[in-house]
């Protein structure tokens, strides 16, 4: 059902806590814990050249199925993923959290994120609007889908040396 | 500067086994490169399939300069400069599209997709003007090979085919892997900005010495046989085609494996439709040979890198900044392999790619390291004792040798010495 103007505050709080935890794990580079937030069929998508491209015909910055998410995380742990040697310092703010839809066990959530990234190359700010589909698995919320739309994804971007 | 001085200046900066660090970070040298390389030689601009229909256009570049690639009403490809001939406004602010004409927003002059001036607002005021001379600026020469469109601002000089020389065959080899004989560039580009000089990229694309180290994380994290190709026991070759074009030729290793599609890290049973198409086109024997050899790994100087399954277009922005435009190659009419070509490309390149992000990290650290005054020269003499000629008369070395780098600098020196 579409959510009415009446907000389910308990659910909102739970979703907020989830998004904050995800942000903290990514900022602190706790990759395994971050990976454990995913469902078994998770899709992690960072489109390029707009928000509404078709990832099945056009290039995306990231378009990972669950096994590629695992590979992404494993690569960080090899000690030879040079984009994190040394890692940049990160801190992100998550805001504008809005419950869009809640149907059965799945909840669609919109949010905005600003990331401050202090790297060897210099300091930069990343801004994105995110869309999560969260699913309750054995009582716990998990990510089944995460879409990150960088506001400048139609321009040339620096290396994204972290989980965005 | 007379010819002798120019020769000695560049001779001081470029030795046979290394080059001055200045070549990567001096803004005056960068300006001179724009003039003598980017605005002189043939530069890759875009692919014909990016403007499939009449009146299609797409924004491209030659060096830092924007260029509008159009297909005009007669089906010809034009490379136009984005500057109104009236007072210089940009006539195109969209990335791509289809239009009958470009109308300048400032005073409404209108240009056809071939650059001709079609109309001027309030035409009575232009009694003395010669309309035929007021079209959009254009890249002087346009030519294409295998669908790859190149432009040159030089009025005379070698033809595109002369410029490509031996590297032409690598494009043929790419096209042979497409059952239709054609490729398409239709998946859109990722644009990856790196804080590094463009030549660090050109050199790295055919540097077979680094993959085992820089990409060790991928080889460790996943099942990949790429590592074998670039070890010091590998029978792969590095090759210098002249004119700055260089290649890592992996065919000897693939032929040893003797497996179809091993070049693509897959096998025939995974892509039955594609294999069938290839067999229908070439017959079983010939198809098998092509599918064992695979596509090339070739750097066409100064900006087109054909990397097996993807193309990179290197764009310099300043002496210390560049953009790599990357996209998947698509074989026209072969959807099953195309999906895989896109998926693998998305995984490996772009700002978050499993492979290229680490390469970019290396370019950026090179750029920082090269600011140190000492040692004044880099070293690229690896394998100079084992350079030899192949059957076609091109210099070859082991795949881990610095032979491509030496070839690139030899050509660079020649271009920079020219007046
Ligand atoms: S600047 Fe284009 S019409 Fe005046
Ligand atoms: Fe590399």
Helix percentage range of chain A: 10-25%
Count of DSSP-assigned helices of chain A: 3
Major beta sheet summary of chain B: 9 strands, antiparallel
Radius of gyration of chain A: 16 Å
Give your account of this protein's structure.
The complex is a heterodimer of chains A (164) and B (419). Chain A is an alpha+beta fold and 164 residues long. Chain A is 21% helix and 43% strand. Chain B has 419 residues and is α+β, with helices and mostly antiparallel strands. Chain B is built from 14 helices and 23 strands. Chain B has helices spanning 3-13, 27-38, 160-164, 168-176, 198-205, 211-214, 216-221, 226-229, 251-257, 272-282, 284-293, 335-348, 356-369, 403-417; strands spanning 14-15, 18-19, 43-47, 56-62, 65-71, 77-81, 96-98, 101-103, 110-112, 117-119, 141-145, 148-152, 183-184, 190-194, 237-242, 245-249, 297-300, 304-307, 310-318, 321-328, 330-331, 388-389, 395-398. In chain B, α10 (272-282) packs across α11. The mean pLDDT of chain B is 96. Chains A and B meet through β2 and α3 of A and β14, α7, β20, α12 and α13 of B. Residues 210-211, 214-215, 355, 359 of chain B line the site of fe (ii) ion.
Secondary-structure map with pairings?
The complex is a heterodimer of chains A (164) and B (419).
Chain A: H1 9-27, H2 31-35, E1 38-47, E2 60-64, H3 66-76, E3 89-103, E4 106-119, E5 122-137, E6 140-150
Parallel strand pairs in A: 1-6
Antiparallel strand pairs in A: 1-2, 3-4, 4-5, 5-6
Chain B: H1 3-13, E1 14-15, E2 18-19, H2 27-38, E3 43-47, E4 56-62, E5 65-71, E6 77-81, E7 96-98, E8 101-103, E9 110-112, E10 117-119, E11 141-145, E12 148-152, H3 160-164, H4 168-176, E13 183-184, E14 190-194, H5 198-205, H6 211-214, H7 216-221, H8 226-229, E15 237-242, E16 245-249, H9 251-257, H10 272-282, H11 284-293, E17 297-300, E18 304-307, E19 310-318, E20 321-328, E21 330-331, H12 335-348, H13 356-369, E22 388-389, E23 395-398, H14 403-417
Antiparallel strand pairs in B: 1-2, 3-12, 4-5, 4-7, 5-6, 8-9, 9-10, 11-12, 13-21, 14-20, 15-16, 15-23, 16-17, 17-18, 18-19, 19-20, 22-23
Helix pairs in contact in B: 10-11
FE2/S2 (inorganic) cluster binds at residues 84, 86-89, 104, 106-109 of chain B.
